[in-house]
From TrEMBL:
Active site: 238 (proton acceptor)
Keyword S-adenosyl-L-methionine: yes
Gene3D superfamilies: Vaccinia Virus protein VP39, Winged helix-like DNA-binding domain superfamily/Winged helix DNA-binding domain
InterPro entries, A to Z: COMT-like, COMT_C, SAM-dependent_MTases_sf, WH-like_DNA-bd_sf, WH_DNA-bd_sf
Any GO BP: methylation
The O-methyltransferase C-terminal domain, residue ranges: 110-313
Name the UniProt record assigns to this protein: O-methyltransferase C-terminal domain-containing protein
Protein origin, superkingdom: Eukaryota
Organism of origin: Lactuca virosa
Keywords per UniProt: Methyltransferase, S-adenosyl-L-methionine, Transferase
SUPFAM superfamilies: S-adenosyl-L-methionine-dependent methyltransferases (SSF53335), Winged helix' DNA-binding domain (SSF46785)
Recorded GO MF terms: O-methyltransferase activity
Coiled-coil stretches noted in the UniProt entry, renumbered to this chain: none
């Protein structure tokens, strides 16, 4: 197969490839089975993936005067590059997370959730996802690894496109719901004048490695958030209802200075009629939120504006970056 260095380099193509892989990850109805040592099955699977433009297919070259083998060979493209496990940035852990049986099974009762009410995840597992994660260490690991890989992709896009956003920031930045600390560690590495605080539930923090310049704090964002000049949240508010989001934002408002503080939010901003390459995933992800979280949803700008205002943030900016999420800057004044 071709290497990443040989294929990579075209930023627009890599973004398009990321969007394509995400569409397939969340295209549950298309369910791609895992390959096995069954060569016939593997060949048929690769034929499907080539058709979906996840890989390129090439005729096997002839050796000497021979006719070459009967099987074709396959190479990576801008889509399958995102599946390399040992790459600096990869979606492979996200694929493993979204194809984990614990995540797949709730989708089978989606229609029941619509007709009867309630959360599909709870119908299957008997408890909400965060409670399930706290009591199931294997799922907790898979979930955290999936979140960590997307954190790195998102934070790379943020650091490349939002250079002045943290440059003028002083003091400390707290990553609320920061998981194992990947995002805040990258922020502090890029801006070493900042003090990083990674804030999440205790069972998540217990799995977080040490990072230079980062302090891990366990707690509950519905109770209180550690004080800081800037608060960063990536893919947190979409897990919660409007009322819960307003509670979180009010706690953010209490934690930052009134005059100079701000909240930097990385979330999907739905524009169903736009030309964003991620629009399919935006809409599909809203159904994922519906099936996995009680009250979870993706929001459009007017919906974001309402919860920001009610949470104490009257001024905001939305900045598009080359990944699934946008940046929402929110200011209390």
């Amino acid at each position: 197969m071709n290497t990443q260095d040989e294929v990579g380099g075209d930023a627009d193509a890599m973004v398009a490839g990321q969007a394509q892989i995400l569409r397939y990850i969340y295209g549950a109805l298309d369910g791609i089975a895992s390959p096995s040592i069954n060569l016939d099955g593997l060949r048929r699977l690769m034929r499907f993936l080539v058709h979906r433009k996840v890989f390129h297919e090439m005729a096997q070259p002839k050796v000497g005067d021979g006719e070459g083998g009967n099987d074709n060979v396959y190479s990576l493209n801008h889509c399958s590059l995102w599946l390399l496990r040992d790459a600096d940035v990869t979606l492979a852990p996200m694929v493993m997370m979204r194809t984990d049986p614990s995540m797949i099974l709730p989708l089978h009762v989606l229609s029941r959730s619509i007709t009867e009410g309630g959360t599909a995840f709870k119908m299957i597992h008997g408890e909400e996802m965060f409670e399930f994660s706290s009591s199931n260490s294997d799922f907790n690991r898979v979930f955290n690894e999936g979140m960590a890989c997307t954190a790195k992709i998102t934070i790379n896009a943020i650091l490349a496109s939002y250079k002045t956003g943290f440059l003028g920031t002083k003091g400390s930045v707290v990553d609320v719901g920061g998981g194992t600390g990947v995002a805040i560690s990258e922020i502090v590495k890029a801006y070493p004048h900042l003090k990083g605080i990674n804030f999440d539930l205790p069972h998540v923090i217990s799995m977080a490695p040490r990072y230079d310049g980062v302090t891990h704090i366990g707690g509950d964002m519905f109770e209180a958030i550690p004080p800081a000049e800037t608060i960063f949240m990536k893919w947190i508010l979409h897990d919660w209802s409007d009322d819960d989001c307003i509670k979180i934002l009010k706690n953010c408002r209490k934690a930052i200075p009134k005059e100079s503080g701000k909240v930097v939010i990385a979330e999907i901003v739905n524009h169903p009629t736009g030309h964003d390459p991620f629009v399919d995933t935006h809409l599909t992800y809203d159904l994922v939120m519906f099936s996995h979280f009680s009250g979870g949803r993706e929001r459009n700008e007017s919906e974001w504006q309402r919860i920001l205002h009610e949470g104490g943030f009257l001024r905001y900016n939305i900045l598009k970056i080359p990944t699934l999420q946008s940046i929402i800057e929110a200011f209390p004044e």
